[in-house]
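User: I would dearly like some help making sense of a protein record. This is the protein in question:
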Amino acid sequence: MYPKDYFPDLHGFEYIADITWPNYGQAQLDWISGILDVEQWLLHYAGAKYDRWAWHRAVECYHIGVAFKYDKHRTLFLLTYS
């Protein structure tokens, strides 16, 4: 299953995290596997999209940007993926 909506969202969340793409060694499919993995993690540990987190514009082209409603979710995310 491909991610359907990995685009920076309009949101009011102030806690921003920026991580490098998770690398699974699958060449061109790395970004798909990375997004799916990150999104499932976010849904499980941070909560519902748009309620607790949203995609955010990444700093670098090989990064994933996420904005959080609560700093505790951003901290846990950075500890997990950085």
Remarks:
- The first strand starts at residue 15 and ends at 20.
- The helical segments are 30-45, 71-81.
- The CA atoms of residues 27 and 59 lie 22 Å apart.
- The chain has one domain: 15-81.
